[in-house]
Amino acid sequence: MEMEYPAIAKGAKAEKGLVYWGDEMGMRSDHQVGRSYGHKGRTPVIPGTGQRFGCTMISALTNQGQLAWMVFRERFTTPVFLEFLRRLVKQAGRKVFLVVDAHPVHRSGTVRSWVGERLEQIELFYLPGYSPDLNPDEFLNNDVKSNAVGRRRPSSPQELMWDVRAYLRSTQRQPHIVRSYFNHEDVRYAAAS
Hints:
The chain is of the alpha/beta class.
C-alpha cells in the first residue's frame, strides 16, 4: 500500500494506462441473503426448484468507474482467463495494469507467457497472499451476490446468468457505483492514481 501500489500507479500514469483490480467468484442458485418472513408459528419458506446450479464471474474495475466483466458456466481455467484478458485489453483501449490475487490460474506459465508477449498492452501485479480485503473488486463481488443472486431464486442456469449479467450491465452504466467500492477504509489506498 505504501510502496508497491504507488509504483504501479506512477507507471500507469507515465504510460497513460489504467490500473484495474480483478477477481473472480462462483455463484450458486441457492445463495440467500437478507431477511424473509413467515406467519407466526410457521417456518418461512423461500420458493425454489430444489436444484442447485451455478455460474462464475470474472471482473475488473478501475477507480475512475470503468468495469469489465464476463459471466460463464465452466470452471475458471487458464483459457477462460486469457479470453477475459483479451477482452479487457480491447475494451480498455490503452495499456492495462491489472492487480489480481495469487490464484494459480493468474500465475500459470501460459498466462505469464501470454502477458510477457504483450507488455505494451498489459502487465499483471499480484496482491499479497491472504489479503482479499485489499482488493476493491471484492466489494463488487459482495454487491453482485447480495443484489443479483441472493434476492430471488432463479429457476434455471440461464436465468441465474441473465440476472447476473443484467445487474452488471446496470452497474457498468453507473460509474459512481463502481467508484464507491473504493470508499472502504481497507481499499482507500487504491482510490488515488
